[in-house]
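Let's sit down with a protein and look at its sequence and fold side by side. Which protein we use is up to you, so please pick one and set it down. Label the sequence line and the structure token line clearly, so we can match residues to local backbone shapes. Go ahead whenever you are ready, and we will take it from there:

***
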Amino acid sequence: MIDLSKLNICFLAGTLGQGGAERQLYYILKTLKQSGARVGIFSLTRGEFWEKPIKELGVPVLWVGESSRRLMRLKRISNEAGKYRPAVIQSQHSFTNLYAALAGRANGLRSIGAIRTDCTREIRALGPVAGALSLRLPSALAVNSKLGLRNAEAMGASPSRLHLLRNVVDTDYFTPSLRNSGGAVKVAAIGRLTEQKRFDRFLRVMSRVDQVESRMGRAIKGAIIGDGPLRKQLERQAAELGLLGRVIEFKGILADTRSVYRWADLLAMTSDWEGTPNVALEAMATGLPVSATSVGDLPEIIEDGQTGLLAEPDDEDRMADNMLRLIRDARLRVTYGLRAREFVAANYSLTQAPQALQHFYQAALQ
């Protein structure tokens, strides 16, 4: 098995903002540093959320995004890779795969690309040529979901270069807490306000649930945590549905989402597509049941009727029924939440990262 302490890797990040890919990068860097590996970061952005925590690990971060021109960025990355002389240059985002692959080839280095979410949409967004090359040029590809593996192969990536590297969650940081069983049941929805996450669907489902519960004289509360291009549109929709302020609050981006998980009684996910979402793992680690759409690897994470409830993306009636079931049964929420915590701790904990990275690099670098 490969010795992590012998690795010399430079990661290329398209952003160090407050996202799931960036949190996973932090976990990888932390594990590699603790194992004695030599690691560094080239970043196309600077001054963003994860830059400071990464530097506090003792990992140098070099800004390589001065130019907006792709060829100039590639030249800078290639030159810096030549100075740093890692054995491997590894992309953390799909849209930086080509930079990593070409800079690696220019310097005689191995390159590892990244596939996140379900692969198809992120690769198609790059365009037919860049998308195809982003799958074919890296020496290996790190894929964070089984669905992503299948889709990458279907889109032309060689199976021998595809390697699963699952997301993990820090189960010592995200822990269960006592919840107040009285008052309105609270539903959290977390993510970037984009088309993928379908918060418009979440608002419609919450409207249905609110109407049913109001007739019974019961109140519910909901919070949307995150920001993005659809925020104003979603706020208008919430106002038109009579939810804004009364039922739904828009909280924006929070530096520490643990406060949300402590506040909430359940997490709702209404996405059209996913890979292995951090939000689900974090919520489950804190003992929350999850009501989600059956997309990406969510059926791998959530056992329907045991740790949470699933519905097809186009079945808003089922989503509302699932949410009502959890809202009305506090004991069921606790039972699902305890099972969810146990499952995540056993299968997706950060404590398993050293072994997972050993297996990944053994396969990717052979």
In short: Residues 330-347 form the longest helix (18 residues).
